[in-house]
Design brief:
The complex is a heterodimer of chains A (472) and B (211). With 472 residues, chain A is of the alpha/beta class. Chain A is built from 21 helices and ten strands. Chain B has 211 residues and is α/β, with parallel strands linked by helices. In chain B, 50% of the residues are buried. Classes of the chains: A alpha/beta (472), B alpha/beta (211). Chains A and B meet through α2, α3, α4, β1 and α8 of A and α1, α5, α6, β9 and β10 of B.
Chain lengths: 472, 211
């Protein structure tokens, strides 16, 4: 585990206010999801998950076919498709278009994909103004931070933080009432929408047979981004594809419920090409940028390519006991939580943060709530194996391998194992508090300390399972 | 060319060749429940009200016109060019601007109006959604820029839900560049998870069902 990852985790664990904020917010989202997918609310929930998984599997396994079909369908309606292999190519495309059209102001709606390629920074470096318009993203942009959570980007900030940011960055009188803060954002951003030359959105789905971009949201900023400016650019990962519009009857039912516990988000936009003859408003130009940025690296591995089924609902973050403690900013890249733990090492390479696939208890809560049934723990295990193989090649972690050899020996000698268990239980404090984190010197030295400092165990039981089994 | 490179990488990774056909995708899963019209109306009203939207049932188009006239009294409004709004007498109410076909003029009016009035192509009973398809009759900004939105919908356009919508419209791109589903007023909970309505879109929504 890198020093950076370790430091961020400890900072989050030590911040009591932040701990409460993360726990409350994720807890609320988690409970709302449970209500809306309960058997009396959605009797065919499991069938919908199975169907969503099958459709995504089919699409990813034939992705080249659907990418080409998407392009044909969109071009038939006057839209254009641009492929980009990385963030530089995305930025180059946007910059060239902006220059050609004399554009200065860009409004953006929330898009994890553009976060991935640091698009705002690249555009601002070239003198363009790129404004985030989702309220949470707007706040995070003012704070010059990354989104904290896929569906709740400013989860870590309070109304007082927002008041400070508005005062400092917008030169407005201090305002701490949330309704009024929202009204301020509305009026500031409304002016941007009406003046913007280009609107940039992400995409929740790309419909191959329709050449359509599907976007879901609650605020209305995506609708404004995609209908007020004369140019709309949607930037989407190539994996967002689904074959047919009719598949949305399945995916839309799952997405809103899994993400925020809504039957449908307030707005669902189905957009295909520029405005047509007779339509009063809408963009004159419509582009879809299809981004690779490491995605094709995931495709060869049959086990791990399911990571690309993700529809970015965020349910796995809310369900994850690790995310709920260490929060979104501890993760080394834009994607956090269980899904971040499996896609980051695959997009960026396992050496980007070798500790990441290990930051999980493999409890399986993530795959239980995943609407497209990604087996996240299985992919984590495969990534752990990749990390270990890479380290073995580097002859690193000899101590760890020695420890695991000793552990394996203990596990294959039941009597010794039992004796060791009894010894451990006899020295454990009765309430179990911090009995690993609190291991006294001289045992907590060197690499052991790093390992011990993040772990805890429940209190040792009076009798071991093996004892109970014998006396049953 | 990134296009060819990316497609080549995808094909190599998947063991496919250019132009290779694909097996049929899993059959579409569409399930349309059998729900009678009165039940659809009570369901959609309950769903809209659960989202803090308002509802009204009008017996005739003229009654709907009367309801809207009272609701917008003293306010400025923009009405879409939907023929049904004209039939209800809404397009010609005092204070209502309608019949606008110029983009810039429409944008300016919508940005300044108190209320936007539209019809809807469909409505979805189980989620309380309005479905609006772009056309010369329905512009996008009427239901988006003003702080309040009133939609007046003939009752026979109320469908059971998403499945019925996509069975009637298997490919919305074939008919228009944009279809939007509107489910309740614009909302956010981005600051401390406190729900606030009307962040970018209308904070108030009223659905009038006619018939």
């Amino acid at each position: 585990m890198s020093v950076e990852f370790d430091r961020k985790i400890h900072n989050t664990l030590a911040d009591a206010n932040l701990q409460l904020a993360i726990y409350t917010a994720t807890g609320r989202l988690k409970d709302k999801r449970i209500e809306t997918v309960a058997p009396d609310a959605l009797p065919d929930y499991q069938e919908l998950r199975t169907q969503a998984n099958a459709v995504k599997k089919h699409t990813i396994e034939n992705l080249d076919y659907y990418l080409e079909e998407f392009q044909r369908s969109l071009e038939a309606h006057g839209g254009k498709v641009v492929y980009a292999k990385d963030g530089t190519e995305v930025a180059d495309f946007v910059l060239a278009l902006a220059k050609d059209r004399g554009a200065r102001l860009i409004v953006k709606s929330k898009s994890m994909t553009t976060e991935e390629v640091d698009l705002n920074e690249r555009l601002e470096d070239q003198g363009l103004e790129a404004v985030e318009t989702d309220l949470g993203e707007f706040i995070v942009q003012l704070a010059r931070e990354r989104p904290y959570h896929i569906v709740a980007p400013a989860l870590h900030l309070t109304r007082y933080d927002v008041a400070d940011l508005f005062t400092k960055r917008l030169n407005l009188p201090r305002e701490t009432v949330i309704e009024k803060q929202t009204a301020i954002a509305r009026s500031v951003l409304r002016q941007k929408f009406l003046a913007a030359d280009i609107g940039i959105s992400g995409a929740n789905f790309l419909v191959a047979g329709s050449g359509a971009v599907v976007l879901v949201e609650n605020e209305g900023n995506i609708r404004l981004t995609t209908s007020a400016p004369k140019i709309h650019i949607a930037i989407a990962g190539i994996e967002k594809m689904i074959p047919r519009a009719q598949d949305l009857a399945v995916f839309l039912k799952l997405l809103g419920r899994s993400g925020t516990g809504q039957l449908l988000t307030v707005y669902t936009s189905f957009l295909s090409g520029p405005r047509r003859s007779g339509e009063t408003d809408g963009p004159d130009e419509f582009y879809v940028v299809l981004l690779d940025n490491g995605r094709t690296r995931l495709l060869p591995d049959r086990g791990k390519r399911q990571s690309l089924y993700c529809i970015r609902c965020g349910a796995c973050l809310n369900a994850c006991p690790v995310y709920r403690k260490i929060g979104g900013h501890s993760f080394p890249w834009v994607y956090s939580g269980p899904i971040g733990a499996i896609i980051t090492p695959q997009f960026m390479g396992v050496s980007h943060e070798p500790g990441l696939p290990f930051a999980s208890s493999l409890c399986g809560a993530c795959s239980e709530v995943c609407p497209v049934k990604i087996d996240i723990p299985k992919v984590l295990l495969e990534l752990r194996s990749d990390v270990t193989k890479a380290e073995a090649r580097d002859q690193r972690n000899r101590l760890e391998r020695l420890a695991f050899r000793a552990f394996a020996w203990l596990m294959t000698h039941p009597r010794l194992y039992e004796m060791a268990g009894r010894m451990a239980a006899s020295v454990a404090p009765p309430d179990g508090s911090g009995w690993i984190r609190g291991v006294p010197a001289p045992m907590n030295i060197g690499p052991l300390r790093a390992w011990l400092s993040q772990r805890d165990l429940p209190p040792a039981p009076a009798r071991s399972f093996r004892e109970m089994w014998r006396r049953r | 060319m990134s296009r060819d490179n990316i497609l080549h990488r995808v094909r190599t990774a998947l063991g496919r060749s250019a132009g290779q056909a694909v097996a049929d995708p899993p059959p579409v899963r569409i399930r349309i429940p059998d729900v009678d019209m009165e039940k659809r109306i009570s369901t959609i009203f309950a769903a809209i009200e659960a989202l803090a939207g308002k509802t009204h049932r009008a017996a005739t188009p003229a009654d709907a016109g009367g309801f809207v006239a009272a609701a917008i009294e003293g306010k400025s409004a923009v009405a879409s060019n939907a023929p049904f709004l004209a039939e209800c007498g809404i397009a010609s109410l005092p204070g209502v601007r309608s019949g606008i076909a110029d983009r810039e003029e429409l944008r300016g009016l919508c940005a300044a109006a108190d209320v936007g009035i539209t019809s809807a192509d469909y409505a979805l009973a189980d989620t309380g959604s309005l479905v609006i398809i772009s056309s010369p009759h329905e512009a996008r900004l009427v239901s988006l820029l003003p702080p309040a939105h009133i939609a007046v919908v003939p009752r026979d356009r109320i469908l059971t839900g998403l499945d019925e919508l996509f069975s009637i419209l298997p490919n919305p791109a074939a008919v228009a560049s944009s279809m939007v589903l509107i489910t309740g007023p614009s909302r956010t909970a981005d600051i401390e998870q406190i729900l606030v309505r009307g962040v970018h879109g209308p904070g108030q929504i009223t659905v009038v069902v006619v018939g």
